[in-house]
Amino acid sequence: MRLWAPLLLCIVLSGCSVAWDERHHEATIVRPSNFKAGSGVIQSVGVLRGAREPGTGVDAEGKHPDRNLYRLLIHMDAGGVQTVDIDSSRFLAGEAVELTNDGRVVRVTGTTLNQLTNR
What we know:
This protein is α+β, with helices and mostly antiparallel strands. The protein has one domain (about 5-115). It is built from 2 helices and 6 strands. The longest helix is centred in the N-terminal third of the chain and has 13 residues, at about 5-15. The protein starts with a helix and ends with a helix.
């Protein structure tokens, strides 16, 4: 039994990190000014209160209007920092993300397990 306990604990903890909805792993860059695509780590998340047009967004649960935008300060892997404003409150400081050419921020931390479970 002692040999199975660590394995069982790992399975239980990995199950807690699975997200079934792919929309939870990405956000749209709302103000796509001069950003450079690439990967990095979020250093901080700021809230831009009331910056979104009325009726254009919902909160993380998808129930109530969300008038806020969220500004990510990202330390890029290639060097330097940049900020982007996104439409999702689901990103936290310390997460690894990728900025894509088509104006999305995609979470890359822990996505391997999610891809395996969706097959």
